[in-house]
Amino acid sequence: MQIDWENAINQIFARRLTCPRCEADVEELVVGYSRKPALSPYAPRHQNCPRGDACEARKLTTLCGDCARTERLRGALADAGQLLETYMLDCRRDLEDSLDYLAEYWRDEFDLTEDQYELPFEEVAPDAAREEAEWRRRLEEEYLRYHAEFRSLHRRIPAAGWRAEYVEEIRALGYDTVLGD
Prior knowledge:
It is a single chain. The protein is built from six helices and five strands; from the N terminus they run H-E-E-E-E-H-E-H-H-H-H. The chain has helices at 5-13, 65-71, 80-103, 121-124, 126-152, 162-172, and strands spanning 17-18, 25-26, 29-34, 59-63, 76-78. The strands form two sheets. Strands 4-3-5 form a three-stranded antiparallel β-sheet. The chain has a two-stranded antiparallel sheet with strand order 1-2. It is globular and about 55 Å long. The N and C termini lie far apart (40 Å).
């Protein structure tokens, strides 16, 4: 089963929650992190993973209480507003990971010569740099959707200064962002 992320996020925005496993309409979902490949289909933000259902990465997973017990997912109950905030914070974590990767960690993935160590990522690995840029753009667009939803609900953005800090850091590395100037 592959969850329809667009549908899931639209349901959250509409304040309607549906368990991705049993499809029951519920007031709250259990939200937790899991590395179990069997829970990959129930991790809405993980839908585009190239490893699919075999992925053992840590992923944010949501299930109703009964399904969470059956699947042994440990987590906290969250209503639609709390779930929206949780997804936004998870998206921020992914953006921070991307920022760290662009700043330094990409060098660990390639056998660089001494001359290449100071070159930009785009010159050393243009295909990998394009993939990372596309991934970051999708994350930034996702973040903007959460941000807009908080605004439309007249709710305070959690840790609102995060966005400005991210923009400053990504710009300092020489990259563009859709999150602003």
